[in-house]
Amino acid sequence: MSAEGGTKAIVAALAANLGIAVSKAVAFAFTGSSSMLAESIHSVADSGNQGLLLLGRKRSERDRTPQHPFGYGRERYFYAFVVAVVLFTVGAAFSLYEGYHKISHPEKVESPIWAFAVLIIAIGMESFSFRTAIQESNAIRGEQSWWAFIRRAKAPELPVVLLEDLAALIGLLLALFGVSMAVATGDGVWDGVGTVAIGLLLGAVATILAIETKSLLIGEGVDPEHERAIIEALESVDQVDHVIHIRTEYLGPDALLIAAKIAVNHDDTAADVARGIDAAEAKIRERFPEAKLIYLEPALDEASRAGVSVPDATAPESPTS
Predict the structure, then answer these.
(1) What are phi and psi of 263, to 5 degrees?
(2) What is the domain range of residue 258?
(3) Pick the residue with more confidence: 172 or 229?
(4) Which residues form the Cation efflux protein transmembrane domain (predicted)?
(5) Of 204, 122, 215, 217, whose CA–CA distance to 163 is shortest?
(6) Which burial class, exposed, middle or buried, applies to 120 when counting CB atoms under 10 A from its CB (0-12, 13-18, 19+)?
(7) Could you report the per-residue pLDDT of 275-289, keeping only the tens digit for each?
(8) What is the CATH number of the domain that holds 198?
């Protein structure tokens, strides 16, 4: 559940994309290939992506204020959402438009050797960036599958960079295919086909990232197994009879809010309850260091005392609770 890591991957991707964008633009100037132009715009958009991710991390570190009492941790989610919706979508829309234009008005690819050279160099640079992102992700991914990691990660940067680099590599292969077919057949339509494929790829990645970052931006709680671990930590304290209900929410990748109503023993004094709450908070933070805010409400569980079954702590709370 660590929110650390990702900065090295972001910087590596930024450096790679800036170099690739320049080289692709040069290749487009010599070849006139729309696939190369689309890929150049893609790399420029990717560079902007990394800039926004770094900006989001920096702004999220600001201290809380009276207007934002829980801090600015969600700024990282906001900027990741902007990356998904704006830059990726703009890149996809431009590629689709340019591809349609090339298919409608095909042109011969000039000086293809430039395109091939730049694409091969770009594939090497993107592979380095992708490898860095994989290494950073493996440090915190644990036993999760890659898809589960992307779906469940609370820090948005690594999933964004991973999908971005993967899309870039596939896009480069599509551009290489389009240019190769255009040169081999002498038909510039293939160049447009490659460009449209790049646009569809970017649109798919944008959709996945938008869905995942929107969920984080709205507010996600811990996973069910982690919620059970929190309940177990609470109920392991002598003064806590059981957890009546619990709510969790990530205020940022490294700031977890936990609010729970706990049943305490009828005969415990206020001092006993206070010691129990302190012990429960300590146990939770030992297991979940990102639990920055913990609010525990002690209560006498009348239903339990009367012999009625105790409600599930993770079930939705009734309006009258």
Answers:
(1) -85, 125
(2) 224-304
(3) 229
(4) 11-217
(5) 204
(6) exposed
(7) 999 999 999 999 999
(8) 1.20.1510.10
